[in-house]
Amino acid sequence: MGKKVMVGMSGGVDSSVAACLLQEQGYEVCGATLHLYDNADAGIRSRTCCSLKDVEDARAVAYRLGIEHYVFNFGPEFRRDVMERFARGYACGETPNPCIDCNRFIKFGKMLERAKLLGMDCIATGHYARVEYDRSRGRYLLKKAKDVSKDQTYVLYSLTQDGLAHTLFPLGSLLKSEVRRIAEEHGFVNAKKPDSEDICFVPDGNYAGFLEHKMGLSSEPGNFVDCAGNVIGRHRGLLHYTVGQRKGLGSFGEPKYVVRKDAAANTVVLGGNSDLACSSFTVGEVNWISVACLPGPAEADVKVRYSQKAFPAEVIPLPDGRAEVRFQEPQRAVAPGQAAVFYQGDEVLGGGTILPMTGGKDKAGRKNDLC
Predict the structure, then answer these.
(1) Which residue among 44, 110, 210, 333 sits deepest, i.e. has the most Cβ atoms within 10 Å of its Cβ?
(2) Domains of the chain
(3) Which of 30, 49, 99, 102 is catalytic?
(4) Is 200 labeled as catalytic in the residue annotation?
């Protein structure tokens, strides 16, 4: 890999240390901050990414390191490929993860494209992950970070072989505590800056408000139904609910959870905790990483939400870029629109988007739906 690298600098401590480490390793480094949207346009008044303060923090670190710093406006692309996809997913009753689309289309798409135009050999980010090349397989591998509590491979599963071949993750072998120590030792202005945890363009977590007021989605009231289809109440609109949700449903005399959303019928299916159990499901748009394609069923640990652990399962390749996942033990609240990422040890085998479930049972008599 060449020595010219463009580091995506968000203004946070992780990307700042990534730039610092690469410079110390002898790379010719430049920094790039991506302007993705105007906070006012997204209805954001508090500090979040894409703010002027973030640009200033990134520029201050770049100045301290003596490297060039660019600001790229990818606002139109971000709205089209991330925000609008997020809105369409919710409109269809799904629970999408926009961070995955941002990585796929913007950070490892548009930024890599821009870096190549400027004569860079590769890009780098402050993600906690590792990339290795396996000569025996002739493939680049995506591996978990040393700091398991910060590992971000779940949101990176869509990286292609070309993307991995032109990407560096300098923090993959470090603990978060070590990263902050390095930032403090170098006097970076953002050494103690808190990590962002919410979706960047919805920092208050009010997805329904954002989708209605900023993306123009309507959220018509409809019926709550039980798993047998009986009407048991009224809901405020599909945008206000997600699979596994318990709060904000009203009183039913016993605990109820959102089991499924039916956009076509505008209904929200409610059930007990046991109704959230899911034994198998299908994923689409599968991206294989450690193999070119999966030749047959394979054992893997599968993670269905960023904040949850992975569980043992069998992954079965299907036609048209799909795969079936069969858990060894039923797992709770599998949500269409989220990603399912397959791990074998610390390697990412691949991953895809969880498809809507249709009900019924598989040939073994196990539930493959949320009801």
Answers:
(1) 210
(2) 4-185 (3.40.50.620), 219-271 (2.30.30.280), 275-354 (2.40.30.10)
(3) 102
(4) yes
